[in-house]
Automatic annotation (TrEMBL):
<dbReference type="GO" id="GO:0000139">
    <property type="term" value="C:Golgi membrane"/>
</dbReference>
<dbReference type="InterPro" id="IPR004263">
    <property type="entry name" value="Exostosin"/>
</dbReference>
<keyword id="KW-0808">Transferase</keyword>
<keyword id="KW-0812">Transmembrane</keyword>
<feature type="domain" description="Exostosin GT47">
    <location>
        <begin position="5"/>
        <end position="90"/>
    </location>
</feature>
<keyword id="KW-0735">Signal-anchor</keyword>
<protein>
    <recommendedName>
        <fullName>Exostosin GT47 domain-containing protein</fullName>
    </recommendedName>
</protein>
<dbReference type="GO" id="GO:0016757">
    <property type="term" value="F:glycosyltransferase activity"/>
</dbReference>
<comment type="similarity">
    <text>Belongs to the glycosyltransferase 47 family.</text>
</comment>
<dbReference type="InterPro" id="IPR040911">
    <property type="entry name" value="Exostosin_GT47"/>
</dbReference>
<keyword id="KW-0333">Golgi apparatus</keyword>
<dbReference type="Pfam" id="PF03016">
    <property type="entry name" value="Exostosin_GT47"/>
</dbReference>
<keyword id="KW-0328">Glycosyltransferase</keyword>
Length: 203
């Protein structure tokens, strides 16, 4: 992370604030055998600490971002039942989390299989995939190949010459959102509208 030239140690100069907290590490210690209070404690402590920082108060955290560091399932607890899996950081699918990395026409490169259909044994994954025509499989494969630079991280010392990697795309997306919020603040718009959706995006 520190290899990137876009960084500054002066928060007053920063376009956005990166929070070096890894929810994946925090939740992984407590995924098995702990109640939801324990699983959520570290994240809640972080929020309390951030809320006291002058950087946070500048835009009330709307210019802050962090890296999740685990699969989305570990952050998508849908209830407050102690038997439910994970934390409640982001109850969203990959299509909704990686808005900048994955094209909206997801049927061109992926097959969506509803979780409930699989859990309730209404569908057999291998059978579903085998029903896809070979021509369509080849077309999807080409789309996936095109996506590869967008979902991998290049060593910042050896940049991809003709492509943006996952970091480039994520930072660009964050900065665009922060700038849009700044414009809304200047125009006196209600920032609570739509913020819940934006708040679910995790890098």
């Amino acid at each position: 992370m520190k290899q990137y030239k876009c960084l500054t140690n002066d928060s007053s100069l920063a376009s956005a604030i990166y929070v070096p907290f890894y929810p994946g590490f925090a939740v992984s210690r407590y995924l098995w055998g702990f109640n939801i209070s324990v699983r959520d404690a570290v994240s809640l402590d972080l929020v309390k600490w951030l809320a006291q920082r002058p950087e946070w108060k500048r835009m009330w955290g709307r210019d802050h971002f962090l890296v999740g560091g685990r699969i989305a399932w570990d952050f998508r607890r849908l209830t407050d039942n102690d038997t439910a899996w994970g934390s409640k950081l982001i109850p969203r699918s990959a299509y909704e989390q990686y808005l900048w990395h994955l094209p909206k026409n997801y049927t061109k490169y992926s097959v969506f299989i509803p979780q409930d259909d699989f859990k309730n044994k209404k569908i057999v994954i291998s059978e579903r995939l085998l029903r896809i025509p070979k021509k369509e499989v080849l077309a999807m494969r080409e789309e996936v190949i095109k996506l590869i630079p967008r979902i991998v991280y290049a060593d910042p010392r050896y940049r991809l010459e003709n492509f943006e990697d996952a970091f480039d795309i994520a930072v660009k997306g964050v900065l665009e959102i922060v700038e849009a919020i700044r414009r809304d603040i200047k125009e006196g718009k209600d920032l609570t509208i739509g913020f819940e959706e934006l708040n679910g995006i995790v890098l």
